[in-house]
Design brief:
Elements (H helix, E strand, L loop, with lengths): L12 H9 L6 H11 L10 H12 L2 H4 L12 H17 L5 E10 L4 E12 L4 E12 L4 E5 L1
Antiparallel strand pairs: 1-2, 2-3, 3-4
Helix pairs in contact: 1-2
């Protein structure tokens, strides 16, 4: 941030973009508001804030929270997928039910139905204690091969 006096504060668009993409869970809009009040010209007019917010959500995993469970039902339903969705509903409700925690999951068939991808995202926002954090996991299950892989 370059500044001689507060009314002349400036920040480059790439810097402002980087700061926004590094926003902690639930803080994107607040940080955007601060950037715009501290350095109003930092985001050039050609910056699409909606696209930037979508990029942040996709990168962090937050996008899962914003999509509805109905989005998962586009896959052809089968017993295994239905059972996994029910198990994930139970798991998320049990493990991520604390105050200030938002969590969601997605179960999708991929590779022509060969692979089942299970993605989980949770975030905890406790503004009063200045504490935020997120958790993201993705697992790929291939039932026919008996193979599971994943990352947290």
């Amino acid at each position: 941030l370059r500044c001689c006096n507060p009314s002349e504060a400036s920040m480059s668009t790439p810097t402002a973009r980087s700061i926004l993409l590094a926003s902690p869970p639930g803080q994107f809009d607040l940080i955007l508001e601060h950037i715009q009040s501290i350095a109003p010209k930092s985001l050039s007019e050609d910056v699409d804030v909606s696209a930037l917010r979508a990029e942040w959500a996709a990168t962090t995993g937050h996008a899962i929270v914003e999509t509805s469970a109905a989005d998962d039902t586009t896959d052809e339903s089968n017993g295994c997928i239905d059972a996994l969705r029910k198990a994930m509903d139970d798991y998320v409700n049990l493990k991520f039910s604390s105050p200030g925690v938002r969590a969601a999951h997605r179960v999708k068939q991929e590779d022509g139905g060969e692979t089942i991808t299970i993605t989980t995202y949770a975030e905890r926002i406790d503004v009063a204690n200045h504490s935020v954090g997120s958790w993201n996991a993705c697992y790929a299950v291939n039932p026919s091969l008996g193979h599971t892989s994943g990352s947290v």
